[in-house]
Structure formats: C-alpha cells, structure tokens
Design brief:
By secondary structure, this protein is α+β, with helices and mostly antiparallel strands. The protein is built from 6 helices and 9 strands, in the order ααββαββββββααβα. It has helices spanning 2-18, 24-28, 53-59, 139-147, 152-159, 172-183, and strands spanning 33-35, 46-49, 64-70, 75-82, 88-98, 101-106, 119-125, 133-136, 161-165. An 8-stranded antiparallel beta barrel has the order 2-3-4-5-6-7-8-9. A hairpin with a 7-residue loop joins strand 7 and strand 8 (133-136). Helix 4 (139-147) packs antiparallel against helix 5 (152-159). The protein is globular and about 45 Å long.
Length: 191
C-alpha cells in the first residue's frame, strides 16, 4: 500500500512537470518563477512590452522596442519601433492560450515573414504575484540560458515582455482601432 501511494505521488509530480511548456524548467532553474495558468484567455489579454521602466532604470533609454497587444477577442497586433521609425504593425492575427503557452497565428493578409516568435511561455516572478511576462520559446529561452550569467533577473527583463496594461472588452476595440489607423502600413513590406 505504501509503495502504491509513493508511486502515485511521483507519477503526479512527473505529470505536472511534463505539463509545463518546454523551456520553463530552464528559466526556473536560474531564478524563482512560476507558471501562470489563466482560467480564461481574457486573463492574459493586455499590452506587453520589453521596454519597461524597470529595465530602463537598469540599462538606460531605449533606441527601439516591441509591443504585443493581446486583445480579449482573440486577436493580436505586434508592433516594432525605433528612434527613426514610428510604431509600425509588423504582424497581426489570432492568439490562443493553452495552459501556460500563448500561441500566435498570423492573418492571411500578412504575406511577409514578420519574424515574430509564435509561442510564448506565460510566467511571473514569484515575488510579483500580479505580474505576467511572456518569454518566447525556444529562441528567448536559449538566449536567456546563454547570457543570464550572474544576473538572471536582468536577462529575464531583456528577453521577456511584461504586461503593462490590461485590455478589457470595453477599452480594447478603441486601442486596436487606433493602432490600425496609426501604425498599419503593409506597403512597407512589399517586395
């Protein structure tokens, strides 16, 4: 009986760790993280960016950046900007969340390679219970491992995108309309 209980406990632990997206263990081995398992996809909806005030305080002003908008209706818009290029939509489409993994699929009208990461692990630093970060897998997980050295928290901020704004059903349509009006210019990507 005792052996059966031990076996069941070990099997449950192995099953729960196998449910973690590929790469999570590699991140969590370097700093205290936990997976975010949203009850609904709307719990992950928001504006995500890598250019946070926390990172800026550590590395200085940004010359460029990226913004990912996950809308509650299941659509997304991904933008990039630099000091010489205004915020520009590079990709848009549909997103979904499965467990702790967000997946992006471009719309048919995206006929160029936006070079956007398609899968992101949803995590938070254990000390920040309200935080949500997206870390691209496998590319950003691999970069994190290579560069984390003695400051893995800084490297997490560099590779990850932090949710800086929650997008609710009421406000999201206005944000999306403004982005598409001001930053959608597919002629930039024609060959």
């Amino acid at each position: 009986m005792r052996a059966t209980i031990v076996f069941l406990i070990l099997a449950a632990a192995q099953a729960s760790s196998s449910m973690a997206p590929a790469g999570f263990e590699r991140l969590a081995a370097r700093l205290p993280l936990e997976l975010v398992r949203p009850a609904a996809s709307s719990d992950v909806a928001g504006h995500y960016t890598g250019q946070t005030s926390e990172l800026e305080a550590r590395v200085g002003p940004f010359m460029g950046g990226e913004d990912l908008y996950l809308f509650p209706d299941g659509s997304y818009v991904y933008c990039e900007w630099t000091d010489v290029m205004p915020r520009t939509v590079f990709d848009k489409g549909k997103w979904s969340v499965d467990g702790s993994l967000v997946e992006l699929v471009s719309d048919r009208e995206i006929r160029w390679n936006p070079e956007v990461d398609r899968q992101h692990i949803v995590v938070r630093r254990k000390a920040r219970k309200d935080e949500i970060l997206l870390v691209a897998t496998p590319r950003d997980v691999e970069y994190f491992e290579q560069k984390a050295a003695d400051d893995p928290e800084l490297m997490l901020l560099i590779v990850g995108m932090v949710r800086t704004e929650i997008l609710a059903d009421k406000t999201a349509p206005g944000v999306k309309a403004r982005l598409m009006k001001q930053a959608w210019n597919p002629t930039l990507f024609r060959k």
